[in-house]
Design goal:
single chain; 7-stranded mixed β-sheet; 6-stranded parallel β-sheet; 13 strands
């Protein structure tokens, strides 16, 4: 894709603020030997930065490529064929350990790329890379801007996270590759198979992710129960995935208790890479706005994603094969793009982009709590029919 593609042409700076020509021109002559992408945020953010990693790998196949992420999020990068190394740091790292880390990797790489606007992310990029590219808030970020050689204005409303990250390809002079990568190794697939009481090559199955990390993204237990019963009646085995968080587990176990013998629970027993392996063999996936839903979309299977307060334009699952320059999703309404159906709760306030109706992560959202099971089941039935 040429560098004047709309994927990364809107309102961005591609100039080297330190003089001597643009970064893209310099790396066109001599590709960087070492590159680090800084994405110190949640699992979903890390996953949605993998298209940028793929773009770097395709442009510069001999470059040593690293991602710097928070500890606990690196599991989504296991088996990623584009990365040579993953570095983890703790989210609440104190000053002295942070300085020690910066000293350890001081200017180790030719290039560091920050996909975040936070001071700490940009500071990490500044320490690691001799050249730095990153995002900045259009109306602020003067301090972080001074640490970067080229910048891209950050849009938190009208541009999808994947497309936003790929706009960093512009200053680098490389083509964006809009492919989310949820990798796994042969041993991850073996472990995932061993966790199931049936042969995934012989029996069709659905993957269902009941509980997201935050309550305001949750659907109802009754809705999940009705869905599981419908899937089993349709001839599909059901596999529950989920995290180890006690609150998430409690919600999943409450649903599981109401459908005894109808589903296999692999939550906490299969790694994220193992979940990725299962998703690649599943007939359909149903889940809320969570990282596993993005993984399912990347696997290319039919996906039904349940959305409430979250902005689909920014956070809708990226459909397989999508090359949209801004976002494949509209802000409002149930919609389908490629292998993904996004079922949105109703209400004039949707999407509010807030943390539930009570404005905190432990509150629920009426738009999801009032979403009928029949609507979700109908979407799953259509998705299965389209990919049969």
């Amino acid at each position: 894709m040429p560098t004047n593609s709309p994927m990364y042409s809107e309102g961005m700076s591609t100039s080297d603020t330190r003089g001597g020509g643009s970064i893209g021109e310099a790396f066109a002559r001599t590709p960087p030997a070492r590159v680090t992408i800084v994405c110190t945020r949640r699992i979903g953010d890390v996953l949605l930065a993998t298209p940028l990693a793929r773009s770097v790998r395709r442009a510069w196949p001999d470059t040593h490529l690293t991602m710097l992420v928070f500890a606990g999020t690196e599991g989504v990068l296991v088996g990623n064929p584009d990365l040579d190394r993953t570095i983890t740091i703790t989210e609440q790292q104190r000053l002295l350990p942070r300085l020690a880390l910066m000293k350890r990797f001081w200017r180790e790489d030719d290039l560091a790329i920050s996909v975040l606007t936070s001071d700490r992310a940009v500071l990490n990029a500044w320490a690691i890379g001799r050249k730095r590219v990153g995002m900045v808030e259009p109306d602020r970020g003067r301090w972080t801007r001074s640490l970067l050689h080229a910048t891209v204005p950050f849009d938190d409303l009208g541009t999808h996270t994947v497309a936003m990250n790929l706009r960093l390809c512009g200053p680098l002079g490389i083509a964006p590759v809009p492919e989310v990568v949820a990798g796994f190794r042969p041993e991850d697939q073996t472990a995932a198979r061993a966790a199931l009481p049936f042969d995934i090559d012989r029996e069709p199955f659905a993957v269902v992710h009941v509980s997201p990390k935050f309550a305001y993204k949750r659907w109802t237990a009754d809705g999940w129960i009705a869905l599981v019963k419908w899937l089993r009646a349709a001839g599909l085995r059901v596999v529950f995935t989920g995290g180890r968080d006690p609150e998430e587990r409690a919600e999943l176990l409450a649903v599981k208790a109401k459908v005894p013998g109808l589903a296999t629970d692999v939550s906490g027993r299969v790694s994220l890479a193992g979940v990725a392996a299962l998703l690649h063999r599943a007939r359909v996936y149903v889940g809320p706005d969570t990282a596993v839903t993005h993984m399912a979309a990347a696997a290319g299977i039919p996906v039904v994603a349940l959305f409430g307060p979250s902005n689909p334009v920014k956070w809708g699952p990226w459909p397989i094969g999508c090359t949209d320059a801004a976002s494949p999703w509209q802000s409002r309404g149930t919609q389908r793009v490629g292998n993904v159906t996004l079922v949105q709760g109703e209400g004039e306030c949707v999407p509010c982009r807030l943390e539930g109706c009570d404005r905190h992560v432990a509150s629920t959202s009426r738009c999801l709590q009032e979403m009928p099971a029949e609507v979700v089941i109908a979407a799953v039935e259509r998705a299965l029919g389209s990919f049969s």
